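Handout, page 2. Input:
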Amino acid sequence: MSPKTLSITREEKGKMGASRYSRQILFSGIGLEGQKRLLSCTGVVIGLGALGSNVADLLARAGVGVLRLVDRDYVDESNLARQTLYDEEDCQQALPKAVAAARRLREINSEVQYEAVVRDVNFRNVDEVIQGACVVVDGTDNLETRYLINDACVERGIPWVY
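Output:
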């Protein structure tokens, strides 16, 4: 049976959105089984600047099941020209990037479970931050943290994208 003709349970159909993911399911590189795997996956994005916030947006739209958004920083006016998840209201409220991103992404895809983590990633907490991840996307802007995340992912066999 080809992926296009596999049956979907009513619950899965509700979670997948009848037409939201239809183009991805038609794509042979993803198909129905790939979409089901994505729905059951936890994606972790560390660093929610220009790169990380755009990747988080795409993961939410693709239908990842859980999206853990990690950043220690707060939305600043200087972010608005290049970081598309944030707006002037986020600046005025001095929102943490993780909180502002989760709020905006929830408006884009409410079926995804969002976890906003406002903290600096370091050797004491990296295990907790990446726990349960299917993939970790590194949007950080310093080499020390990048090496730390890479080492932790390699040790645990978690795909690391930077």
